[in-house]
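Bench notes, afternoon.
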Amino acid sequence: MKVFSSEYTFDYSWEECSTANWRKYCPWNDKSTHVIAVDTLSREIDPATGILRTERLITCHQQAPAWVISLLGGSNTSHVYETSYVSPADKRVTMCSTNLTWANILQVRETVTYQPDLTTSSPGHERTQFTQDAKITAVCGGWQKIRTKIEEASVERFSENAKRGREGFEAVLEMSRRVFGEEKAREQAKLH
């Protein structure tokens, strides 16, 4: 098993990040063109805790090497199952995802959190701490050396994708702030 971890601080409030998270794969994000569809499977609020729990199926077009597809079968379409928990009381979003495609060969378990960054935020300038951890395990048979190579290559690719994902989410956050700011200004103009 190999582990990928990263942290990043977004220069946006937790409210902005937790709201924009639902638009992460929209046309505003030119870094996520590989995402074909995001289907919400279920969504419910726990009446005791107020936590919003959502299950989604994310369908992607991945560029798997041609030799992998010819050897293992399948296609470039992959599916990821995601469960997210939004706790407004704790100001915390937790997203857990796992690959469904080729899970009998490689298992990827990712956990992402968004929460206010209390150490660098100041009144009027709130920031959000993002943490990302992934455990990548080759479960295919064969020699340990082959499994290790598969895991190392997967961590490298995961790292590249994580960087693009952060860049894309920054674009979504920027556009959200602008669009909602313009809408708020229009609404205020109507009141005057």
